[in-house]
Prior knowledge:
The complex is a heterodimer. Chain A has helices spanning 2-27, 30-45, 56-67, 100-119, 122-145, 148-168, 178-205, 208-221, 224-228, 234-251, 257-277, 279-296, 302-327, 344-347, 350-356, 363-370, 373-406, 409-416, 438-441, 451-457, 472-491, 509-520, 523-529, 531-556, 560-587, 592-615, 627-636, and strands at 48-49, 72-73, 89-91, 94-96, 338-339, 623-624. By secondary structure, chain A is mostly helical. By secondary structure, chain B is mainly beta. Chain B has one helix and ten strands, in the order αββββββββββ. In chain B, the strands form two sheets. In chain B, strands 6-5-9-10-2-3-8 form a seven-stranded mixed sheet, with no helix packed on it. Chain B has a three-stranded antiparallel sheet with strand order 1-4-7, with no helix packed on it. At the A-B interface, helix 5 and helix 6 of A face helix 1 of B.
Amino acid sequence: MDRDFELDTxxxxxxxxxxxxxxxxxxxxxxxQLLFLGALLVYFLTWRKGVFINDTYVIANTLVAVxxxxxxxxxxxxxxxxxxxxxxxxxxxxxxxxxxxxxxLALPVLWALQGLFQVVEPAIAISAIFSLLLLGFAIQLGKxxxxxxRLRVAGSIIAVMLFGMNILVARETDQYxxxxxxxxxxxxxxxxxxxxxxxxxxxxxxxxxxxxLAGIVVIVATPVTFWATIPKRHSxxxxxxxxxxxxxxxxxxxxxxxxxxxFRSLAYATVGLTxxxxxxxxxxxxxxxxxxxxxxxxxxxxxxxxxxxxxFLVSLLPFLITNTVISGNPLEPPRxxxxxxxxxxxxxxxxEMNHTSENTGGKISGGTADGSTLTIFFLTLSxxxxxxxxxxxxxxxxxxxxxxxxxxPQRVYQTFIRSGTQGEYLTTPKHAARNLSVLxxxxxxxxxxLIPLLSYKNHNSTPTSEAEGIPAVRVVDYAVFAYTGxxxxxxMPTLPIHASVTVRxxxxxxxxxxxxxxRFTHLPTLVKENRMAFVWTYTPGVIIGGxxxxxxVVLMGLPELSAIQLYAKIxxxxxxxxxxxxxxxxxxxxxxxxxxxxxxxATAVTTVFLLVAxxxxxxxxxxxxxxxxxxxxxxxxxxxxx
Amino acid sequence: MExxxxxxxxxxxxxxxxxxxxxxxxxxxxxxxxxxxSSVFCDEGGDVAVEVIEVASDQFEIxxxxxxxxxxxxxxxxxxxxxxxxxxxxxxxxxxxxxGLGLTSKKVYFIDNTSExxxxxxxLAESFESHRIQxxxxxxxxxxxxxxxxxxxxxxxNISISVDG
Lengths: 642, 165
């Protein structure tokens, strides 16, 4: 009996140890886990099921193909039956999608959902997961704030009550769309790690309260939440950038040589994974990383570089293999292939597509069958060299065009400050833009304009307790700067662009902006010192402000697009307010609480946008997955004017 | 405190238990309302009376864009219709055809007896590269059709789409 008890205790201790290691690996600590659960809860509440933007069709069809065991698309389950939707490529008469890294990430999620939905109705399953997440959140919150017992009981009651409410209004879900749900869920979980890694990075630089605050800001005051449930690449590539920066920091921290080398190589491993999703973004990350890492590394001995390079090459393998299977050229990513729209004559009708897809051999296997392996080798090599030269040319050209684009005031103005067609958008809705600029999407970013003033006042301090050389945090600062600069150069020539909503091509700059706000401005100090002012402005700001916005839209009889532009104006106004008041508070301490109020308002404005976007604007006729959210959206439905 | 340890366990057992009990395998209780609007659950066909209230045909316009990956965007206008006498699950199709651009854009609305009585129909905005835009105006046909037991056109208008910029 005693022996059994001992074994049980040992098992429990071992299990707890494993759980703790898992928690540390994924989230850093309990606070990181809390941010993860909190983000998931917010994303579940605003999860619109279905296709929000039409280039998701290709990704969903690719997932169906990959789940079927091949990379080419032989059945167009989603979108136009001809397969003619953005991002569809043709190689040798076969259809291929893109973002294969994203698709492979969603594959296990698809299997899990298919299995789960065999035994539980989708709407009930989502309601159950939501309630269990809420319960987990309450338990973890108890561990951080204290009062664990009370929160365990309260969390249990609320979780069961919400589950009950959800099942009361749950509707059947068409399982035809499960591949799209899988893509959404994979994106959503990825996006929930963005605030976690912002927290983990900042908690090593700053105090933990500031770092938690930064994580919360990422969830409630950036467009990260908007794109969290839309299965595009942006959440994934953004997370990989933040993880890369985190690893870069860890590679400069402490004196453990092996640990530092492992983290340095992990920073490069994220590049390979990014390239698998979007080769261009992978290249930008690689340039930024090498530009900062090589000159600042404590050691660049050949064996260090060989190790880092080796890990980097291994991380590139999925990307290289996928490209080779599709085009025969490991360096030719899907985005460089012939688009379906350019090759209508090649492909013809859907029946022809089915015919060609019966050939299962790819380019390479076809060649090998001829027997002239050497010829194939040289052809492939010349293809690789061609693509490598083309990539270098494209990058150089793109950066040159980027510099020119950054010198165009109107382009910069419309991308960063005011996006809508100016002047008449409230009276002639057909001209009103459906997009927001960077500042309209995240007014809090305006405080970054204060950095020159702050550096003049020399407010920020640099930790000095690092190993030899440049402090770890400085290395990350430089990397953030380099990455943002390169991303701007590469993307500016295409901006502003339609169907971008929050300038999504620049998505990583939002969490990086939060990092910069917490590193270089006095905002976190302001909020920590005036906590109550923040809470008592933010909460009514969201609750009352959100209702006032909807009321204004209804009373003015605005069309949907004009409502978006009305929001944009409000957002810009708070952005301007926050930079003025926070700037003034630098010279006058008595303005601190006013500045906190302005910060809270700018935060609340984005939260209102995130909620209104899910429940009112940008709904694209989609239902929300969580039954109670859907009922709320239906209750709040606005009859848009013309 | 013991109840603090037990409460989450009870909550988990309840939530997971009810989820599985109501699922397709055990199916002890049916907790989800079916959606007759979906083609999977509704017997397709039937009919609906459609009254066209307003068609914003003047809002169709091809606008030049500043971005370089897309040169022109076709801005589209909505139509508002009132529906009544819904029988089973017919479909209303809002359809734009511009032969000069080789463009056919349509959106299908699945109707059932839970549908709103006033619908706002839209078609997707399309984008074009500059080499496809060769004329200053394009002629198009805007159609609203009902598809059910029989197919019929309830509205048709020839529109002129101007190219702006």
